[in-house]
Amino acid sequence: MRTITLAAAIAAIVAVTGCSQSSSPSDKAAAGSQASAPAPTGSAPAKTRENPLLAKSDLPFQAPPFDKIKDSDFAPAFEQGMKEQLAEVQKIADNPAKPTFDNTLVAMEKSGQTLNRVQMDFNALFSANSDDALSKVNEDMAPKLAAHSDAIYLNDKLFQRIQTLYNERDSLKLDPESERLLEWYYNDFVHHGAKLSDADKVKLKSLNEQASKLESQFVNKLLAATKAGALVVDDKSKLDGLSKGEIAAAAQAAKARGLTGKWVLPLQNTTQQPALAELTNRDVRHQLFENSYMRTEKGGPNDTRKTIAELAKVRAEKAKLLGYPNFAAWKLEDQMAKTPDAVLKFVRALVPPTMAKARHEAGELQSMIDKSGKHFKLQAWDWEFYAEKLRKAKYDLDQNQVKPYFEVDNVLKNGVFYAAHELYGLTFKERKDIPVYNPDVKVFEVFDKDGKPLGLFYADYFKRDNKQGGAWMDNLVGQSKLLGTKPVIYNVCNFTKPAPGQPALISWDDVTTMFHEFGHALHGFFASQQYPSLSGTNVARDFVEFPSQFNEHWASYPQVFNHYAKNYKTGEPMPKELVAKLHKAAKFNQGYALGELLSASLLDMSWHMIPADAPLKDVDKFEAQALKDNHTDLSYLPPRYRSSYFMHIWGNGYSAGYYAYLWTEMLDDDAYQWFENHGGMTRANGQRFRDMILSRGNTEDLGKMFRDFYGKDPEVGPMLKDRGLK
Ligand SMILES: [Zn+2]
Description:
- The structure is a single chain.
- By secondary structure, the protein is mainly α.
- Helix content is 51%, strand content 6%.
- It contains 26 helices and 7 strands.
- The protein is globular and about 85 Å long.
- The two termini are 44 Å apart.
- Residues 19-21, 516, 520, 545, 548 line the site of zinc ion (ZN).
């Protein structure tokens, strides 16, 4: 059974790009073998139409029937799914027979298939194609799902069976994956309070419910605030610096909002906004930056500050109840890093070289401003603009020069898919018969090296107002031999949608994001587990970004790059000079880029190391102090996300976990070094990586998995070299 966390799906972030993978370990596939489920609740729609979420899909790979699912299906399906699973679990707990691995854990793995299906479909739509009705479902269901999850974790009869098996584990003669499953269940239950007294269990339930309410409040406020924070411009001249295509897209975005004749620059989820690199009018830049920076701090209904201060407190109280000094200590226990100290040691060691580099970069930008005859001090809203100028001066590289070589479909087929073919032998075929939730979504069937079907892949690349920011991957159906399911996986990004009739030309960052998200997809497609709980991407957060970031490396690998980087009009390859500039420029501005990640990571840790008895925090003061204490308080270098719009840590599963992107960067740069040392992109190397990492899910200790692959523990050297900090 997986932790039920609604909307926890999207995570998010970064490294070069901005991704994330759903960290919620709720990856169970729908197989619906439980015919003994109770009848539907009274809240099911009364008409003859059947709720499509309640039955196993009969589409290929059990793909969701998005053409049939309605918003109004979700609430009754959630209720039904929870009811079914509770009945299934109670039956396991009440079983008069002595606990066995089969009648307890295998039975648990088979439980909750309806709920899991509903949740996966919901997560996909709520994150990528939301509306008010789904937001309402999210808000209503979050506390109910938290309570549902508690009802299972805190079922003492059930836990006693697990404990009995755990105590007898040496005599059970289990295969390694089953043994891992038993340990995982036991630790997971204890982690979620199974050993608390009855009185404390009641307290824990109440805290979990409060937390989940606050989390979904935060998500809804942020989505509304980000939409409302878009910059509306009524004078085209103010957009000077943007390309024709971008201005047309801004006009289109205005039209879509009923603001015909104006221009709209929608906000991305990060502090910095892409247009800040191009807008020549400093006042407009300042305004766009303020819209972003203050989006959730305007005092109105979308202000998140009170919500997050309360959430931090509730989380701290929960940790205390479970016997931990703070929430981070509790949260990190089952991660690769294991303790807050290990995280802080890792992150803080990166601060001095990074900030020194950032100060140096700031000096260069300031002298550029001075030389231009202007008299102002570099601010955050100037950084991207002058960095872009400096990038051009230093490398003569204009982002708009490279975009014509990155047409999105071509990058997908001749880049992302090609790399997967060269390394792993995969092939892809577009399927137009599978229903999608939005016409922008494309579906591909994935075939293994022997030509056998591996699963379905959905690509949803363009920004929409009803999509959350960032980029992410998740499953619609998870892989499991026990349930007989193959993976159905989606990637979601937020690339600028071209005006009708125009080609979709994306930036180098976007290209990298595509490879990143597809790296998660590979981790899901190669999953080869018996049990859904241990399958594919259901691994610790500080491991889950390893396969994705690793896959980014192939975007610039010459054999791959040359295969896709061709001019969309002429088919000409990118000129060698431009390629060289692009690669050189990739090391540019790394003080800033890493700096904003470090300060966000440290903000995250600061919020989650507050002790339970501390008074409610003033968000802005606390944030300023945390940045200062960690020596990351440079005025021109704000965190990648401010506390008040830090989706990963308040709305997703990345609380006390944002560092994970940097931690896994250490893993992926090191693993890529292994490839370089062993002949680079070969099928044999790919197979080894697939066998030892990508196909293993969470079936063994993750540190051991890495050591077995490489023959040593991960080291930070290749990461520092890659960032140009060494
Ligand atoms: Zn990711």
